[in-house]
Design goal:
- By secondary structure, the protein is α+β, with helices and mostly antiparallel strands.
- It has one helix at residues 2-39, and strands spanning 41-49, 54-59, 70-76, 90-98, 101-108.
- It has a five-stranded mixed β-barrel.
- The longest helix has 38 residues, at 2-39.
- It binds copper (II) ion.
- Copper (II) ion (CU) binds next to strand 3.
């Protein structure tokens, strides 16, 4: 009887490890999903200033910056990123906040 109790305890312990592992996997999966969803912001190019490395974008919500849709000016990390874009283009972009300055690190048409 004592032996049986021990087996049950071991099984319960093993079961809880399994459950916690499944929980971890789900959390990781959800984190990945959030990452993908917040990765790119979308918008339409309104103005390009190649010499200053600035671009005006009418953008949708930018989740990682908690920003609602609006039209605003961004600075690009590299001026060369503006070579391929012109007003009217639909773009996807990655933006980071560097001490309140919005910097586009990636720009895709
Ligand atoms: Cu904005």
């Amino acid at each position: 009887m004592k032996y049986l109790k021990k087996i049950v305890l071991v099984m319960v312990a093993a079961g809880s490890v399994l459950v916690s592992r499944i929980g971890d996997a789900q959390t990781t999966q959800q984190a990945d999903l959030v990452k993908t969803e917040t990765k790119y912001a979308e918008g339409e190019v309104k103005r390009v200033d190649s010499s200053l490395g600035k671009i005006t974008i009418k953008h949708g919500a930018i989740k990682n910056l908690d920003m609602p849709p609006m039209t605003m000016v961004f600075t690009v990390k590299e001026k060369s990123m503006l070579k391929e874009v012109s007003p009217g283009d639909q773009i996807r972009f990655l933006v980071i906040s560097d001490n309140g300055k919005m910097i586009i690190t990636e720009l895709l048409k």
